[in-house]
């Protein structure tokens, strides 16, 4: 078993030094509960996709975010404050890209679209049924990614 995760360590240390990421007690039970909630969100998003695409997209996004947050809380890391969702993305991407960058980078697309849907300005694209169709598989892949690394990545 690994005792120290080296990929992205300098970026994680930078995020901690900036106060964007905090060290907390590692919590596998909480990570597992995040993943269970993420699975439920994906199921709900699937049901709502035709009748409420914005709500369904939000659920798919929350599923993806919770999957990435599960990785961090399992390591004893937590993002907080303004921009916490971006910090979650940056912290996981730093540690797992490569080899999982393609899947992780799709979260940033979801994050940006979620923001423009939640806080629209004139002319901003908001989530539609096609976006939900794209987002649900991304959320599923990030849940699978998290499930695959929780037993491998040690406490930070």
Automatic annotation (TrEMBL):
Pfam families: HEPN. InterPro entries: HEPN_dom. Residues 49-147 form the HEPN domain. This is HEPN domain-containing protein. It comes from Galbitalea soli. The lineage of its organism: Bacteria, Bacillati, Actinomycetota, Actinomycetes, Micrococcales.
